[in-house]
């Protein structure tokens, strides 16, 4: 059995770990609330832009903007949203495993795809697995603003426009609730399924003409889809970290309980031993 | 709310417009106005209630919102305007009310952009970027000073 002092040390170190994890849990909880709000305030923009794009795209059949058309696939781009820091439970590993599996299934050679990772964990994963990286961004704010990721979103959309890649997928964790997040893959480009719900749409006049509108609105739409996914991903990240930290706190508590039990046992054993020694010493004198 | 008058022909003539300015970072403004004027890529655009549905891309400029006795300004950076008879929606990648504009920051951005314009050649990507940044900064400063 470990000595009293060893057990005491372990109890102390576990309880300071517990303090840290429970503080991190609270921090993540408040960040998650903020991220959830951000994701919500983005919804009106998304809905509106989607409505306009859908009505333009479905309103006239001869809309033949390159971003609306599927072309033969020679190269695929993957935009992957991960976090910068670890300690977020399965948040990063789930998404990266899914990405890796998808790539293994779909592609035979490295010339067939490129990855655009957002976040440090994703970037390092791609480097380690030797996946081709087109561009990456690290050190994103917990509450990212649109301007911060503008560069990478336009880069991704430009890759498609310049026919560097022929389709673009988005991998991220979708925030379902504080305890559930889903790894999601969506096809970003070409935009083929804009009007899924088949809503009644209004018809518009276009100033100056449809083509010019599509040229400005479609890249903006695609970029905002990436931004939306990032906000969703951030909310999931904080939720996932919160859950991970909560279970770490719970585990630390269990461990402290166990250690306290064995500490008390050891103490009791030491006392008993001492008494036995005294008693046997006294009886030897008689 | 939209109020409406009945014209002599029996048609409904709208008197006001609901205007909302939305950006990816959340809604900036929501209100009722009598007239909206903005600068689209094709030229100045004045929108009164009852306008036919229209979509037009905007330039980096000020959007003027007129109500009965005052005019409000909003700085928009690109984006587009969607018009319906009683509703105008402006979707921009960023937009600010004059009170939200950080003039010092805009001033700094202006100086930075000017420096860059002096040091880069015209066919450089950074040159274009600096031009746009300069436009944005000037637009913000103008609007903030207008108040």
UniProtKB/TrEMBL annotation, chain A:
Pfam families reported for this sequence: ATP-synt
Alphabetically ordered keywords of this record: ATP synthesis, Cell membrane, CF(1), Hydrogen ion transport, Ion transport, Membrane, Transport
Membrane topology annotation: Peripheral membrane protein
Localization of this protein: Cell membrane; Membrane
Main location: membrane
InterPro entries in the record: ATP_synth_F1_ATPase_gsu, ATP_synth_F1_gsu, ATP_synth_F1_gsu_CS
Role description: Produces ATP from ADP in the presence of a proton gradient across the membrane. The gamma chain is believed to be important in regulating ATPase activity and the flow of protons through the CF(0) complex.
Annotated PANTHER family: ATP SYNTHASE GAMMA CHAIN, ATP SYNTHASE SUBUNIT GAMMA, MITOCHONDRIAL
Quaternary structure note: F-type ATPases have 2 components, CF(1) - the catalytic core - and CF(0) - the membrane proton channel. CF(1) has five subunits: alpha(3), beta(3), gamma(1), delta(1), epsilon(1). CF(0) has three main subunits: a, b and c.
The family this protein is said to belong to: Belongs to the ATPase gamma chain family.
Name of this protein: ATP synthase gamma chain
Species this chain originates from: Allobacillus halotolerans
């Amino acid at each position: 059995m470990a000595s009293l002092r060893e057990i005491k040390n372990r109890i102390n170190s576990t309880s300071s770990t517990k303090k840290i994890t429970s503080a991190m849990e609270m921090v993540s909880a408040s960040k998650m609330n903020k991220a959830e709000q951000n994701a919500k305030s983005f919804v009106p923009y998304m809905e509106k832009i989607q409505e306009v794009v859908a009505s333009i795209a479905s309103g006239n059949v001869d809309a033949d903007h390159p971003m609306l058309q599927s072309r033969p696939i020679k190269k695929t781009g993957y935009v992957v949203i991960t976090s910068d820091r670890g300690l977020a439970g399965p948040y990063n590993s789930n998404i990266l495993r899914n990405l890796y599996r998808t790539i293994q299934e779909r592609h035979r050679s490295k010339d067939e795809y490129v990855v655009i990772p957002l976040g440090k964990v994703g970037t390092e994963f791609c480097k380690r697995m030797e996946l081709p990286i087109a561009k990456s961004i690290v050190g994103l704010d917990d509450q990212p603003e649109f301007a911060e990721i503008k560069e990478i979103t336009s880069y991704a959309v430009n890759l498609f426009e310049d026919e560097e890649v022929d389709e673009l997928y988005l991998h991220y964790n979708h925030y379902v609730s504080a305890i559930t997040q889903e790894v999601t893959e969506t096809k970003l480009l070409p935009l083929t399924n804009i009007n899924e719900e088949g809503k009644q749409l209004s018809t518009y006049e276009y100033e100056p003409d449809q083509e010019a509108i599509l040229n400005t609105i479609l890249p903006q739409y695609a970029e905002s889809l990436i931004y939306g996914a990032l906000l969703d991903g951030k909310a999931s990240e904080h939720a996932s970290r919160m859950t991970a930290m909560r279970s770490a706190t719970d585990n630390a508590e269990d461990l402290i309980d166990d250690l306290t039990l064995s500490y008390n046992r050891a103490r009791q054993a030491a006392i008993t031993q001492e008494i036995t020694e005294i008693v046997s010493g006294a009886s030897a004198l008689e | 709310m939209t109020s409406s008058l009945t014209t002599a022909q029996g048609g409904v003539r709208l008197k006001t417009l609901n205007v909302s300015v939305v950006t990816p970072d959340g809604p900036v403004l929501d209100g009722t106005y009598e007239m909206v004027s903005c600068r689209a890529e094709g030229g100045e655009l004045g929108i009164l209630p009852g306008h036919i549905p229209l979509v037009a891309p905007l330039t980096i400029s000020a959007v003027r919102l007129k109500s009965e006795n005052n005019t409000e300004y909003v700085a928009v950076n690109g984006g587009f305007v969607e018009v319906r008879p009683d509703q105008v929606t402006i979707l921009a990648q960023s937009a600010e009310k004059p009170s939200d504009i950080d003039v010092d920051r805009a001033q700094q951005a202006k100086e930075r952009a000017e420096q860059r314009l002096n040091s880069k050649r015209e066919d450089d990507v950074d040159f274009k970027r600096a031009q746009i940044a300069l436009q944005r900064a000037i637009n913000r400063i103008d609007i903030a000073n207008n108040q």
